[in-house]
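@channel sequence for tomorrow's demo:
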Amino acid sequence: MSHTHLVEVNRYRFSAETLTEIESDAYAANNWPLVYILSDRKTRRAYVGETTDTITRLGTHLKHPHKQSLTTVHLVSSERFNKSATLDIESSLIKYMSADGCFNLLNGNLGLSDHNYYQRDELYSKIFRETWDRLRRYGVVERSIEAIDNSDVFKYSPYKSLSADQQQGLIEIMRSLVDPNLKNVVVQGGAGTGKSVLAIFLFKLIHSDLEELDLREFSEEEKELRTLLLQLKQIFPHPRMALVVPMNSFRSTLKKAFRHVAGLHPDMVISPSELTQQHYDIVLVDESHRLRKRVNLGAYYGAFDRACAILGLDKNTCSEVHWVTQQSAKAVFFYDPNQSIKPSDANESDFDEIKSSPTSKVMTLVSQFRVRAGLHYAHFVDDLLNLRLPADKKFSSSKYEFLVFDELSDMVKEIERRNSNYGLARLVAGYSWRWVSKNTPDLHDIEIGNVRLRWNRTNIDWINCQGAENEVGCIHTTQGYDLNYTGVIFGHEIKYDEQRDEIVIDKNNYHDRNGKQAIKDPHELKQYILNIYQTIMLRGIRGTFIYACDVGLRRYLKRHAESYKSNVIAFPEPAAPLEPYVNAVPLYDLRAAAGNFSEFQHVEHENWVPVPEGMPVGKNIFACHVVGESMNKIIPDGAICLFRLNPGGSRNGKIVLVECADIQDGDAGSRYTVKEYQSFKTYTEDGAENFQVLLKPRSTNPALTAIELSSKDDEHRYQVVGEFLGVIT
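structure tokens (generated this afternoon):
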């Protein structure tokens, strides 16, 4: 059966008058399980549900005070639907629509279903993708699934399934919040254990209507959780709540996440200094290890002192931890002492004082959610940096790429390739270079061999900003965030003494002034720096690549990790025979030029080439050779590359295959080039129009320049025929 027939999406006006029309829908009339979406474009509100009794359920919604004003209903149906499938698709739509941001959801679904069932991956994942594509055509959603997967709004959505570890932690927190004898809760957990997700989930839970709340995944704990929530609402009928986030960048990201969730508002996410404005019933503190004390505060000294004066606290002995406890009836700290990275961070003793109090509850999260290799990798990194590994112990995982590089240029290329394939692949380094480009943008901060790089141009949401893939982030712009791949540069401040078998720190090469000022104990500085590297090594979901400036450290790392061997990772040949459009795509003799347009080339089908696992295969996918050096930062000369035919949507910032169609004859065919597409728009009454298009090289050769297509160029002279997906070999 054709893929186009997997699912139906039908649109109706949502009103009592049109229920008769909906009754003519075969699936609705026969009590077939289906999914529905109620929406109103004007108010940007929507609701997602699933049912086997469509007419009755929609009739109930028409009487609901918040849903009766919605104007449109979309019915999602399929002959392949069963109850498990509709529950799964409903929960996926809630998660993805919430992050898409086209509508604000009215759903109270929390702890969404994430169970396995027959043909979930083989069939129903395809059905969900087709459903999403249909909804994009209807204008119900806007962004692609891939773009949402990489968005922080999606990662920090409250509509997420919690692990058993997180569920138990949530119940313990709720018990503590209703216990009159308890004031503070400390939730401990390492990087990637889901502290931020749990904090946001808890925030949404407390702001949910009990009647609307769906907690189906909590099964036997659902009754207790509802009882606890009812008790909490009796104690705090309209709780004054805040989520405190110490880091500016991460706070900005969580504000975005709150913007698209019904019942939540960006103003609920605040800085520590904003605690002075009022007393709160409940305060949650994410990344609480980054709360500050009065040491090395730079320009923040004045604000810190004013806050202490307002609160009547001694500025020399208190920290922002004390601000939280004083300004809240109940406080929940999400805490990891191993992510304290500078002297201005609050003392561990401040948290020890809270944890030892009889009015406090302490709990620990252990599950690893960020990295695909799980706790195995997290423990390995800790042991690696603290020299606790046996001499012959090497990291190995089929789920995670972990490589040490001898050449930084190779690592830069691989990160660029991963960014092209998956997005959110970034270079991150220790603070071993001065930020000279801050005041002189033309200068480079990091120069190693023939590689010249610049630090991040912004501290706010750097990971997602335009051009971040060409820069190097630091701990301050990456802590709290998820990446798909991280390329970690160990700088000149950290070395390995082979004779003493010891990691040593060179203070003179550590250039975070506020990160080392006033530190007299070298062991203290060493611990901060090790914490920095451990934290950034736990950012990558799919993999982590490492380059160390110190040769001794590089040799030590290579004892415990596989080394990168070549310019292009050789993908293994498929074990099964090549099957067209199943595990192989056609290779065309375009000989696309990564330079100016190539000489006349015949466009002929040569043969079939295998496609590496994880890369797309389909009748709109093809491969061709790319020659030249103008894209060598991403595509080596002579590489075979994968392309998607006739890509739609915005091309800005993408690498594309372009046909020059004005030099052509019947025998010779067309000419092609591969470049990064960059457009500059002007806005008129008729909308946005391109007034300039650049086809830009991505090369180590600065002499290579962009091809400029002006507005005078006839559109059919230059045609984008393919979107670059990645290097095969």
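heads up for whoever presents: The chain has a mean pLDDT of 84.
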